TrEMBL record:
<feature type="domain" description="Bacterial bifunctional deaminase-reductase C-terminal">
    <location>
        <begin position="2"/>
        <end position="180"/>
    </location>
</feature>
<dbReference type="GO" id="GO:0008703">
    <property type="term" value="F:5-amino-6-(5-phosphoribosylamino)uracil reductase activity"/>
</dbReference>
<dbReference type="InterPro" id="IPR002734">
    <property type="entry name" value="RibDG_C"/>
</dbReference>
<dbReference type="Pfam" id="PF01872">
    <property type="entry name" value="RibD_C"/>
</dbReference>
<dbReference type="GO" id="GO:0009231">
    <property type="term" value="P:riboflavin biosynthetic process"/>
</dbReference>
<protein>
    <submittedName>
        <fullName>Dihydrofolate reductase</fullName>
    </submittedName>
</protein>
<dbReference type="InterPro" id="IPR050765">
    <property type="entry name" value="Riboflavin_Biosynth_HTPR"/>
</dbReference>
<dbReference type="InterPro" id="IPR024072">
    <property type="entry name" value="DHFR-like_dom_sf"/>
</dbReference>
Length: 188
């Protein structure tokens, strides 16, 4: 069975965005881009909430075509255009979306159907609201966290309304020159 791995930048105090959704505190450099690029290139399915999907869709399809495109932009744009996208949204319709599935109801059943299909890990990018919903339904199988060396004090937390403990096994760690630490966990 395929696994859903939540890919998230997080502050030391557990926030994934500022109070107004700001992410200007996230440190990303070539070292992190290269590391992440290798890992996600193995993925064939990306999972997003509506807001994150719309943000990605507004940038990545043509990012690699721009004259000033970086190596990362070119590589990630190619990956984004070929990967199957799954979007959790109660308001979007998928009538004209290429290579994209919208899930608006029966979340647990629909996600479990996707997990049963052939393929690699399903990578859940950002999307705090979608992540919260999937956590509540015990549908996330792993957490790929990039802990940024900052304390925000307030913002959008990664973990909310957890009613049962979620035991994790640490698979790998990595320290980047920027001070960001990668923590890769699988749900026990």
């Amino acid at each position: 069975m395929r696994k859903i791995i939540s890919f998230m930048h997080i502050s030391l105090d557990g926030f994934v965005a500022g109070s107004n959704g700001e992410m200007d505190w996230i440190k990303v450099d070539e070292e992190i881009f290269d590391h992440v690029g290798k890992r996600i290139s193995e993925g064939d399915t990306a999972l997003y909430g509506r807001v994150t999907y719309q943000m990605m869709e507004n940038y990545w399809p043509t990012a690699g075509d721009k004259p000033a495109a970086t190596k990362h932009d070119i590589e990630h744009s190619k990956w984004y255009n070929k990967v199957h996208k799954v979007v959790l949204s109660k308001t979007m319709k998928d009538a004209s979306l290429t290579n994209t599935t919208i899930i608006s109801d029966n979340l647990s059943n629909r996600i479990n159907e996707i997990k049963q299909t052939a393929g690699n890990d399903i990578l859940l990018f950002g999307s705090p609201t979608a992540t919260h919903s999937l956590i509540q339904l015990n549908l996330i199988d792993g957490y790929w966290l990039f802990v940024n060396p900052i304390i925000l004090g307030q913002g959008i937390p990664l973990f909310v309304d957890i009613t049962d403990k979620i035991k994790l096994n640490l698979l790998t760690t990595r320290q980047f020159a920027s001070g960001v630490t990668e923590l890769n966990y699988i749900v026990d």
